[in-house]
Amino acid sequence: MAILVVYWTGTGNTEIMAEKLHEGILEAGVEADLKQIDDCLPDDVLNYDKVAIGCPSMGIEELEPEEFLPWYDDVEPILGDKPLLIFGSYGWGEGEWMDYWQDRVKGLGLNLFEEGIKINSTPSTKEQQMIKEMGMRFALK
Ligand SMILES: Cc1cc2nc3c(=O)[nH]c(=O)nc-3n(C[C@H](O)[C@H](O)[C@H](O)COP(=O)(O)O)c2cc1C
C-alpha cells in the first residue's frame, strides 16, 4: 500500500502540515510520498491507494485559483473511492474555505477521511502532533 501527500503552499504553512502528515504515515509503517503539485501530474494519483491533498485558503475563502485549482479539477474526477484526506492553513475568520471544500468533496460522493484539517496560520507544536496522529490514523484505517 502507498499513500500520496500532495500540496500547494505559498508561505510554507500548508507545507509543514504536509510534512507532519507524511511523518505520521511513515511512523505507522506505511509507504508514502510527499510532493508539491508542481511535481505531481494529476494522473500520478492513480499510483496510490490513498491520497492527502493540501491547499491553504486563498482568494476569498477559495482554493488557490491559479495553480492548485486547475490541477485539482483534473484530480478530483479520477479519485474514485480512494480515501481522501484534505488539509490546509488559513489566515483569519473561521476557515470557511475548508467547509466549502468539504461540501464539494461530499457532494461528489468522494471517500472523505474524517474532517478536513484546518489550521490557523503556522501549526503550533501541539497542532503538528495532532496532524501527525491524523496521518497515522489515515495510514492504518
Ligand atoms: C492572496 C491571499 C488570499 C488569502 N485569502 C484568505 C482568505 O480568504 N481567508 C483566510 O482565512 N486566509 C486567507 N489568506 C491567508 C492564508 O490562507 C494564510 O496566510 C495561510 O497560512 C497560507 O498558507 P501557506 O503558508 O501554506 O501558503 C490569504 C492569503 C493570500 C496571500
Automatic annotation (TrEMBL):
It comes from the Bacteria. Keywords: Electron transport, Flavoprotein, FMN, Transport. Gene3D superfamilies: 3.40.50.360. Its cofactor is FMN. Residues 3-139 form the Flavodoxin-like domain. It holds the Pfam family Flavodoxin_1. The keyword Methyltransferase does not apply. Low-potential electron donor to a number of redox enzymes. Belongs to the flavodoxin family. This is Flavodoxin.
